[in-house]
Amino acid sequence: MQFPWDGDVDVQMPIADLHKLAQLFNQSVVVDFGNDMDNLRYGRFFVDVTSSISHRDKGNGRNNIDARFIDMDSGLYVDITGLAISETKAPDRYDGGLRNSKLERSRKDVTEAQRNAHLKVYNCRNKHFTRLDELSPLKLTLVEGEFAYVPEQFTTILVDEYQTKSLSVRDYRQMAFMSNLRNWVDRDKVLDLASHKDSDRKKRLAKIKVTPDLNIPDSVQLLMDNEPVLQEYLTTKELTEIHANELNAILSGISPSSLFFDDETNSLLDLRSTIRPDVFTWETIQKEYNYEQAMAEFNEKCQDSDKILSIKEGAEQLKKTSNEMEKSAKAKEKIIEKAVEDVKKETAQQAPPQPAQAISNQAPPKQQAQHVQPVKQAQLANQVQEPEPQPNQDVNEEPNQPKLLQQAQAPIERDML
């Protein structure tokens, strides 16, 4: 059974089979209709194989999974890793197979891949090593109601990976294993029953590392008080009973094959069971699913999505047009500025400025004399300025300026002729 705190299932396969899986089924959708045609399932699973399965070292350690079998509705998945011979050093527990050979660790001219091949030790990219005699021959069993294979020496592998306590521990992450129910249950609920809801006794029991197992009356009471626990027990009780008998046979040194095969016909017994409904079936029951209503909601979401996309595209187009107009306006300004500069330069080259005195002495044409006269008089009036009084001169005394008056009157007389 799957542990309640574990969100995935881990599967290992030979690297050659992983290559075949990638070649034939990568990016495929697998549809599960179940084992009973009278009770169809609607499971959908996606096969996703990484592009680096030929790399068998751990690397930076960020992704040690070679492939995943993903439930497209729930997001849960099966992690798949390949077992292969690699250049990663095998654990010291396998060094006994290298003693008194040309492949000892002291030899510098031997690669780790050569040693691993000699030892028949295989590993995944996360440095989980397994020897061939620990794997083969595989044992048939049931996992979550489906047939599967586990290693020959699975207890040895568990002890190497999780130490000896992994075979007997009954408490983990606020969960406690109840023998009568053959299930993991919330530890706090177990302590409530074991203490008979005495708070002081519950505190004392909570300090104990091992949760006390419930007797049959307390186990029945636990089922009556907790509907999810009751539902899990009813769903898994047949499967967990087979598993308990399987463990007893293994511990007694008896092959458990008789639990899975018919001795007379030597055929596989139909022990598979659907203990977990697919998401579609579950939601159909829980939410009273209606196909027509679901399709109407889906179409409405699609229309809303199209509207949002249209608005977004329109805003992006408007922004793009605004940017283009701004660029065009700036380009026109530069053209105009350049044209003005060119005109100024051309004008300066064609008509250089003349001295002011020369311009004032030029006589205008006779036909324009009447119009020019007031202008000339104004110009001359501006030119004729009274000199500042000298220090010894009276401010009321008329200044002596006969030459200046003669110069001013000369052009006026010419204009009057």
UniProtKB/TrEMBL annotation:
Stretches assigned to the LicD/FKTN/FKRP nucleotidyltransferase domain: 2-103, 107-162
Localization terms from the record: Membrane
Presence of keyword Transmembrane helix: yes
Topological relation to the membrane, as annotated: Single-pass membrane protein
Disordered: region residues: 343-417
GO cellular component: membrane
Compositionally biased tracts (Low complexity): 348-365, 382-402
Alphabetized UniProt keyword annotations: Membrane, Transmembrane, Transmembrane helix
UniProt record, GO biological process: glycoprotein metabolic process
Main localization, broad class: membrane
Record-annotated membrane-spanning stretches: none
Protein name as catalogued: LicD/FKTN/FKRP nucleotidyltransferase domain-containing protein
